[in-house]
Design brief:
This protein is 45% helix and 24% strand. It is α/β, with parallel strands linked by helices.
């Protein structure tokens, strides 16, 4: 299935206009995207992209391939769904999720229930460390979590699914797209995401690296609660741009990119492997749901 993956990456690069845009969409590094595109060009025996400096455009061969690749990917997705319809799954599985990923997982499961009406799902919202422990122990069959170093446990399966870029988020009443991040840290109260979490600890390291000293106001363990406080102009924050929430289109919020290369956290599905015939179907449906989402949503 490497050709399908390569074509999916090619379409993302062609539509996004860069390997960096494709990397965000298909949850790969920019280097991995470039490697896949070189392999695809070698297989097609044609140059698919023309590069001039930092500008990248499709070559004539790339323009020819793009609509055919999109058609082939649509046919593959239709075929996969038809086969999934024939392979009914039933029973009860226990899934966990971070609260910030629950919206995406719930949307996935709603679609899955329409395909497999005899499948029953128990959903549990927990924090990262507890989710990992419950998957390893078998208390949960799988969970949507942030990538980290996993214990070496037989059968444990990790699948990266999507990235969430770390950004600075402020109320639109105090910030505009051209607002200096440093000025916010110098003048506005900072609402911090819990440093005991992997994401909170990473944010703390970024602040130290950028030499940003916040005016500490509050530290919470809920990104959604933090976003609501920012909407009310209680303070500003540094947080991942959550999938399925579209904060960039929220008129009450101003999302500012960090200086330098984008920094992201990676989320995916951790499975204990004992019921992989069911959790694998959930995982594939979530990946398909992500592909159907518009970029940035």
């Amino acid at each position: 299935m490497s050709s399908i993956r390569f074509l999916r990456t090619f379409v993302a690069a062609a539509r996004g206009g860069s390997f960096a845009a494709a990397a965000d969409q298909v949850a790969l590094t920019q280097a991995a995207v470039g490697q896949q595109m070189r392999a695809l060009e070698a297989e097609m025996k044609k140059t698919l992209f023309d590069k001039t400096g930092r500008t990248m455009v499709l070559s004539p061969a790339g323009h020819l391939l793009l609509p055919r690749a999109e058609e082939l990917l649509a046919q593959y997705e239709s075929m996969r769904r038809d086969l999934q319809d024939q392979r009914q799954i039933a029973g009860t599985i226990k899934l966990g999720s971070l609260i910030s990923a629950m919206g995406l997982l719930s949307s996935t499961l709603a679609q899955l229930k329409s395909l497999h009406p005899n499948l029953e799902v128990e959903l549990r919202v927990r924090e990262q460390t507890q989710l990992m422990q419950d998957v390893v122990s078998g208390e949960l069959d799988a969970a949507v979590v942030v990538e980290r170093q996993w214990p070496e446990v037989p059968g444990l399966l990790w699948t990266p699914c999507y990235d969430e870029t770390l950004t600075v988020i402020a109320n639109s009443g105090i910030a505009a797209p051209d607002t200096s991040i440093a000025s916010l840290f110098a003048s506005q109260p900072f609402i911090r995401f819990d440093r005991r979490t992997p994401t909170g600890a990473r944010i703390d390291r970024i602040l130290r690296r950028l030499q940003l000293v916040p005016k500490e106001f509050l530290e919470l363990n809920s990104l959604l609660a933090i976003a609501e406080l920012v909407r009310k102009n209680v303070g500003f924050t540094m947080a991942p741009l959550l999938k399925n929430f579209d904060w960039e289109s929220d008129p009450a919020l101003c999302v500012l990119q960090l200086p330098g290369r984008p920094i992201a956290r990676r989320l995916g599905m951790l499975e204990n492997g004992r019921r992989s015939h069911i959790t694998g179907v959930v995982r594939e449906e979530m990946l398909a749901h992500l592909r159907r989402m518009k970029p940035g949503s």
